[in-house]
């Protein structure tokens, strides 16, 4: 009957008279009181006007069940929808959401279910993006390597310096991708020790800038450290990974003949601040936090991804800095993007989370 009358069906589905009640126990109490009161009142009225008791009791039971169904429908409707949504999620559909209009424990459960569905959907989307991005990143160097080796085997080209250099470049690209994936695995496992040591900041940054300059991009690099004898205490390999990533990103997004500025200074109260600035299009304010999320890649003015990559570099950078107890952020800049890293005087990893906190 409800299928034949859509309005009646919609009215029935939206019927939730006990939604304002904040406790499922109170709802059950109201349900019992209403059913017993209705059945008792109807029975008393029916007997008082001379109707046979068996008819009165039978009718009271039927009417009491109807009242119970009306009141209980809104209580169980979210549970039925959660069951259907859970079955859909098992089949890979994470788009189902539960209407959480009640204020009781079932409403809280519906809200938690919606959050879980959103998180699972995001995780599934990130997994698909990771597979697509990694596949794309692997395909290009593998294709180039295959072409180079086929040309050498077929005698089209000889194994001269240019050919070997091209093969080496693509091999290094594959190595960087594998290293990023390994770092991601370590990040999720939460088992990366820090090898802290004191080192001079200026030669440390000069080495990272020199590696970026060796990529022969049409940009210029500027390095400044104040004071010149600034000393930092950190894990050099992890911090080098961060700085190299930031400088490489800045070089990629800077225009030809642009300047990539790398600087470091002592922080007030101890520690150091490292800044990497470019002269590119910059990062929109709404994306300044998202760029440090996993699988997030930069976009141009039209919202299209730029620079390729898996979107893991800045996420790994944030993880490495937070492992030192520091912070990394996109700072306001009048031109281009400015990434600021701050490390405390005595870098210490944050407290190890419990298993439930991972």
Summarize this entry quickly:
The chain is of the alpha+beta class and about 350 residues long.
What count of helical segments does DSSP give? Answer: 8
User: How would you characterize the largest beta sheet?
Assistant: 5 strands, mixed
Question: How much of the sequence is in beta strands?
Answer: 5-15%
Order of helices and strands: HHHHHEHEEHEEHEE
| Shape call | elongated
Q: What are its keywords?
A:
single chain, 358 residues, alpha+beta, 5-stranded mixed beta sheet, two-stranded antiparallel ribbon, 8 helices, 12% strand, elongated, disordered C terminus
Describe, in plain words, how this protein is organized in 3D.
The protein has eight helices and seven strands, in the order αααααβαββαββαββ. It is α+β, with helices and mostly antiparallel strands and 358 residues long. The strands form two sheets. Strands 2-4-5-7-6 form a five-stranded mixed sheet. Helix 3 packs parallel to helix 4, helix 4 packs antiparallel against helix 5 and helix 6 packs across helix 7. It is elongated and about 110 Å long. The chain starts with 5 loop residues before the first helix and ends in a 15-residue tail after the last strand.
List the SSEs and their pairings.
Blueprint: H1 6-13, H2 24-48, H3 53-90, H4 105-154, H5 161-189, E1 196-200, H6 201-213, E2 219-226, E3 231-235, H7 236-253, E4 258-266, E5 272-277, H8 313-323, E6 327-331, E7 338-343
Parallel strand pairs: 2-4
Antiparallel strand pairs: 1-3, 4-5, 5-7, 6-7
Helix pairs in contact: 2-3, 3-4, 4-5, 6-7, 7-8
């Amino acid at each position: 009957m409800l299928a034949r009358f859509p309005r009646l069906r919609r009215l029935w589905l939206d019927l939730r008279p006990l939604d304002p009640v904040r406790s499922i126990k109170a709802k059950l109490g109201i349900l019992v009181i209403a059913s017993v009161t209705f059945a008792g009142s109807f029975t008393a009225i029916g007997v008082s006007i001379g109707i046979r008791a068996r008819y009165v009791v039978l009718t009271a039971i039927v009417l009491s069940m109807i009242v119970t169904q009306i009141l209980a429908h809104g209580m169980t409707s979210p549970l039925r929808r959660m069951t259907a949504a859970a079955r859909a999620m098992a089949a890979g559909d994470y788009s189902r959401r539960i209407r959480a209009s009640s204020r009781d424990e079932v409403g809280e459960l519906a809200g938690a279910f919606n959050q879980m569905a959103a998180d699972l959907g995001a995780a599934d989307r990130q997994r698909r993006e990771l597979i697509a991005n990694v596949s794309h990143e692997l395909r290009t160097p593998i294709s180039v390597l295959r072409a180079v080796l086929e040309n050498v085997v077929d005698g089209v080209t000889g194994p001269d310096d240019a050919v070997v250099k091209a093969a080496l470049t693509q091999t290094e690209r594959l190595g960087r991708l594998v290293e990023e994936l390994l770092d991601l695995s370590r990040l999720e496992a939460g088992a990366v020790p820090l090898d802290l040591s004191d080192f001079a900041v200026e030669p440390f940054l000069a080495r990272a800038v020199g590696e970026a300059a060796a990529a022969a991009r049409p940009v210029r690099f500027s390095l400044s450290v104040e004071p010149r004898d600034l000393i930092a205490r950190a894990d050099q390999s992890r911090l080098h990974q961060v700085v190299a990533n930031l400088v490489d990103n800045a070089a990629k997004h800077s225009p030809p003949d642009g300047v990539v500025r790398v600087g470091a200074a002592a922080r007030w109260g101890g520690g150091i601040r490292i800044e990497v600035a470019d002269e590119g299009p910059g990062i929109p304010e709404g994306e300044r936090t998202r760029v440090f999320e996993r699988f997030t890649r930069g976009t141009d003015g039209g919202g299209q991804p730029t620079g390729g990559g898996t979107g893991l570099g800045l996420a790994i950078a944030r993880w490495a800095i937070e492992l030192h107890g520091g912070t990394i952020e996109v700072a306001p800049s009048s031109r281009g993007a400015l990434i600021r890293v701050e490390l405390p005087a005595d870098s210490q990893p944050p407290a190890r989370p419990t298993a439930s906190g991972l």
